[in-house]
Design brief:
With 320 residues, the chain is an alpha/beta fold. It is 51% helix and 14% strand. The strands form three sheets. Strands 2, 3, 6, 9, 11 and 12 form a six-stranded parallel sheet that branches. It has a four-stranded parallel sheet with strand order 1-5-8-10. The protein is elongated and about 115 Å long. The N and C termini lie far apart (72 Å). The model has no long low-confidence stretch (mean pLDDT 83).
């Protein structure tokens, strides 16, 4: 940078000198009487013009220095923002690994807020990937009902079982909170501050037993993967959702309970697939859906099933 400034200043001086000399020669050449001399006023004007050129070069140097300083400040600000993001990310992930369900809930909200504040799409996607990975981790099974008993040993077993039930419910609340936050952010219009539309959601093999609301969401980019997922309870809403440019797959997903609504959803583009999905219980409805049937859906629901699956009449009449 210093060498560039020196070269710029030297070039400015040389240009100013050249302009001064050129004007002198030009004025002498244009004089009818070659013996005529330059008067003091003309000479003074030439000197002012030369210094004006030098001042312009100095202004150019100041502009270069200011631009360089701005670039350095921007790089420093970006480095500081990245450092703060990394610190917040590490703290949030540490909370997710805590033994306390309350601390884990804090980590979930911290990661969601960090994804909202991320200044690049890659950083936002990383936060979302961690939340999805948490949902894919094995969760403690439901211990079931409390055993009956009256003896001291049986009472101790009841206390132990009660602790397992409380932990199961607390951990389930953490998972359901993630599902709720994902739905909330996906329902925000793309391009807004808290929108996750266009990001990837890898929910492969996840058990969804709580509420997941994608009502009115637009799937115009990214990939949403429900392959091998189990819908065993709760309610999942895709009502009025638009699938116009993304890949949403339910390959080999199991609908064994709860309710899944695709009412008035639109399928103008993109890809949505149910290849190998199993409908063994619950309710799945596509009432009022517009567009052609998703890939593999008609084949999956053609086999005997105890689930209630409602399809638009035009899909049924167009099926082979």
């Amino acid at each position: 940078m210093g060498r560039a400034l020196v070269l710029t200043f030297v070039a400015a001086v040389l240009v100013a000198s050249g302009v001064f000399y050129g004007l002198v020669v030009l004025l002498d050449f244009q004089e009818v009487d070659t013996t005529a001399k330059l008067d003091a006023k003309t000479l003074f004007d030439l000197v002012k013009l030369s210094f004006g050129v030098v001042a312009g070069a100095g202004a150019l140097v100041d502009l270069i220095v200011a631009y360089r300083r701005q670039r350095v400040d921007e790089v420093g600000a970006h480095r500081e923002a990245t450092r703060l993001h990394t610190e917040r990310f590490s703290q949030a992930v540490d909370k997710l690994g805590s033994d306390s369900p309350a601390v884990r809930l804090g980590g979930v909200h911290s990661l969601a807020g960090l994804a909202d504040d991320a200044f690049t799409q890659d950083l936002r996607q990383t936060c979302i990937d961690v939340l999805c990975a948490y949902l894919r981790l094995p969760s403690p099974p439901d211990p079931g009902a409390l055993p009956d008993g009256s003896s001291s040993s049986e009472e101790q077993q009841r206390e132990t079982h009660r602790g397992k039930v409380d932990r199961y419910r607390a951990m389930r609340e953490v998972r359901r909170t993630i599902l709720r936050l994902v739905g909330d952010h996906y329902r925000n219009p793309q391009g807004t501050h808290r929108s996750w539309q266009g990001c990837d959601l890898d929910l492969t093999g996840v058990t969804i037993d709580g509420e997941l609301d994608f009502s009115g969401a637009t799937f115009s980019g990214g990939t949403v993967n429900f392959n091998h997922a189990t819908f065993s309870g709760g309610t999942v809403y895709f009502a009025r959702a638009t699938f116009s440019g993304s890949l949403v797959t339910f390959g080999r997903a199991t609908f064994s309970g709860g309710r899944v609504y695709f009412n008035h959803a639109a399928f103008p583009g993109g890809t949505m697939a149910f290849n190998g999905a199993a409908f063994s219980g619950g309710t799945v409805t596509f009432e009022g859906a517009a567009g052609s049937a998703p890939d593999g859906l008609l084949t999956s629901v053609s086999t005997p099933r105890p689930a209630t699956v409602t399809l638009p009449s035009d899909w049924l009449t167009s099926s082979p």
